[in-house]
Amino acid sequence: MKKSVRFSDFVHFFERNDTTAIFHALSREVVFANKENLTELNNCLSQAPGTDANNETINYLLQEKFLVPVNTDETDSLKLMQESILQHPCIDTLYLLLTNNCNFACKYCFFEGSYNNPKEKTINMTKKLAIDSVRQFAGFLKKACEYTDFNPYEPGIVFYGGEPFINADIFFATVEEVVTLKNSGLLPQNLAMNINTNGSLINHEIASFCAKHNIEVDVSLDGYQSMHDACRVWKGGNNGTFAEVMKGINILREAGAKTCISCTISETNVEELPDIFNWFLDGAGVGNVGFNPLLNSHQYKIDDSFCVHAKETLNWLIWDLYRQAK
Ligand code: SF4
To answer: Higher model confidence: residue 110 or residue 46?
Structure first.
C-alpha cells in the first residue's frame, strides 16, 4: 500500500514554525503535522529504508482523500463537485444597494472611490425599486424551490451601500415588506436579512428595529483605535471614526441586536490579527467576526505578496482556533 499512494493534487502545504498545515482545497479540510510527523509520512510514501508508517494516519489520510492511489485521475472529483454546485444555478441572495452615498471616506474604499468622489452623482434607492426587487426575488426563490436539488443554506437579503443607513426609511419599508411576504408564505420563513454598515449612524430606533426583526448588523471595525482610524476617516477630513463606530456597536449590544464585526485586513493590522480577534470578543463584546483581506482598488494599490501574506495569516488564525476547539 505504501508505494501505491501519493498526496492528492488538491493538497497544499502551509508551514509555520514547526507546524505544517496540510490543506485540501476541494473538501477544505485541514490536518496538521510537526516536522517529525511530516518526515515520517514522506519517508513512508517514498518507502525510504528504515522508516515505518503509522498505518492509522495513512488510512485516515486516504479516507479523507488527502492521499490517493498513485494512478488516480482526480478530474472526476472536480467535475462531481462542479456539477453538484452548478446543476441548477439559482439566485438565493438579493443585494440591495440602498445608496451610493457615504459619510466616510475610507482610504481603501473598494468601490473605486466613487463614494468619495464629489463628481459622482449621489443616488438613493427608491422605495418602489426596493419593494419591486424584493417581490421579484420572492418569485425567483419560489421557482428555484421547484428544483428538487435546490437547497440553499439559507436564502438571504443583504442591505448594502455606500452607507445604507443614509437611506434608513427605505430600509425600514423594505423590511416591513419582507415580513408581510413571509407572513403570507411568499417568502420562506428561514430567509435571513443582514445589513453592512460603517456603524456611525446607528441609533436606538435602528438598533431596536434590527433586534425586533432579527436582522444581523455587520459593522466595519478594523481593530484598535489607531488601526481603525488609519484608514477609516470621515468624509471631508482626515479624522478617525473609531469613537462613533464603537458608540454604534454599544447601542446595538444594548438593544440585543445580532451584531457582527467585519474587519478589513490591511498592512496596519495584519500582524496582530489574533490579538485583535480576542479584543473584538472581550473588549468590544461582539461574538461574531468576519475578516476580509483588502482588495486592489483604483485608489489603493495592494501588493501581491501582501495578499498572499494576509490570506496565510488569516488561514492560520482560523486553523489555530480550529485546533483549540478540538
Ligand atoms: S464605509 Fe464603506 S462605502 Fe463608506 S467610504 Fe468606507 S469602505 Fe467606502
So the answer is: 46
What is the pLDDT at residue 150?
59
- What's the average model confidence in pLDDT over 152-158? 83
Beta bridge partner(s), residue 15: 20
- Please report the pLDDT score of residue 299 as a whole number: 66
Ligand 1 pocket member 21 (CB < 6 A): no
Alpha-carbon distance of 119 to 49, in angstroms, equals 72
- The 10s digit of each residue's pLDDT in 62-79 is 999 999 988 888 888 888
Percent of the chain at pLDDT above 90?
A: 56
Cα of 320 from ligand 1 centre, angstroms: 31
Query: What is the Cα–Cα distance from 176 to 166, expressed in whole angstroms?
Result: 18
CATH number of 87-325: 3.20.20.70
| Cα separation, 192 vs 15, whole angstroms | 38
State if residue 105 touches ligand 1 by the CB under 6 angstroms criterion.
yes
Q: How far apart are CA 22 and CA 38, in angstroms?
A: 10
Q: By C-alpha distance, which of 216, 231, 227 is closest to 286?
A: 216
**Domains of the chain by residue range:** 2-83, 87-325
Lowest model confidence (mean pLDDT) among 15-19, 88-92, 105-109, 316-320: 88-92
Q: Specify the pLDDT at position 50.
A: 46
d(CA 111, CA 159): 16
Whether the CB of 102 sits within 6 Å of ligand 1 = yes
Q: Fill in the amino acid letter for 157.
A: I
Q: Report pTM.
A: 0.84
CA of 109 to the centre of ligand 1 (A): 5
Q: Whose CA is nearest to atom 1 of ligand 1?
A: 198
Long-range CB pairs of 48-56 (<8 Å, 24+ gap) are 53/2
165 Cβ below 6 A of ligand 1:
no
With cell 427605505, the residue in question is 170
